[in-house]
Amino acid sequence: MFITFEGIDYSGKTTQAKMLIRRLRQMEMPVVYVREPGGTKISEAIRDILLDHRNREMHAHTELLLYMAARSQIVQEIIKPAIQAGKVVVCDRYIDSSVAYQGYGRGIDLEWVHRLNDFATEHLKPDITFLLDLSPERAAERRQRKARRQDRMESEALEFYSNIRKGYRKLAEDEPRRVMILDAELPRDQIHQQIWEMIKPGLSQR
Ligand SMILES: Nc1ncnc2c1ncn2[C@@H]1O[C@H](COP(=O)(O)OP(=O)(O)OP(=O)(O)O)[C@@H](O)[C@H]1O
Ligand SMILES: [Mg+2]
Q1: Fold of 2-204
Q2: CA distance 164 to 102
Q3: Whole-number pLDDT of residue 151
Q4: Does residue 37 have a cis peptide bond before it, meaning omega lies within 30 degrees of 0?
Q5: What is the spatial distance between Cα 98 and Cα 113, in angstroms, rounded to a whole number?
Q6: Residues having CB within 6 Å of any atom of ligand 1
Q7: How far is the CA of 78 from the centre of ligand 2 (A)?
Q8: Of 4, 5, 11, nearest to 142 (Cα)?
Q9: Domain extent listing, the chain
Q10: b/e 153-186 (16+ beta carbons within 10 angstroms → b)
Q11: What pLDDT is recorded for position 83?
Q12: Residue 191: which of 20, 29, 32 has the closest Cα?
């Protein structure tokens, strides 16, 4: 089973991914948790380039291709072998992030983003994707509360995030069987419970 988490920055992806992992491990399910961009030596090196503030001059196409390069490596090195070994793979961000951020956020032709996703992943799609839907304003509040230093991507304007959110919602509309929208403002335990209810039937079939 291949599960991904999506949503704008601070929507609670990592929080939910970790809660899910903990629960799966309690059941002694073999699980692999990875995050994008990153997860392999090569992909982590690409991540550093992508998030580095000094790389302000990065062109949107370069950004897209770097995300795809990092993705290709993690798919080949980690995700595919883990799925083949019968493990549950939980990935914090995946193909939909590129559609939302580089497609809807940066305005790159969606056709290209989809084609490059297919190339980078050899058409490997998640069985289920949880989209944590949050307004950019709420996300900014959470960020201020944490007072963490922003990375290159996070320092974009609210409008950028508003376009990304729209993109994510469109994705959920286009692929309602795979992409599940969740209200990211709910208490975290409640969101976790909703996720668990959707995952459970798939697990018992294995
Ligand atoms: N349901 C929730 N309600 C309120 N706050 C939450 C909820 N879930 C997570 N948070 C808080 O919001 C912040 C962001 O959460 P988290 O790091 O899980 O988001 P993320 O989507 O992984 O962000 P990023 O894209 O930056 O990695 C954290 O401070 C977290 O404690
Ligand atoms: Mg995170």
Answers
A1: Rossmann fold (3.40.50)
A2: 9
A3: 78
A4: yes
A5: 7
A6: 7, 9-15, 142, 146, 186-188, 191
A7: 19
A8: 11
A9: 2-204
A10: ebebeeebbbbbbebbbbbbeeeeebbbbbebee
A11: 98
A12: 20
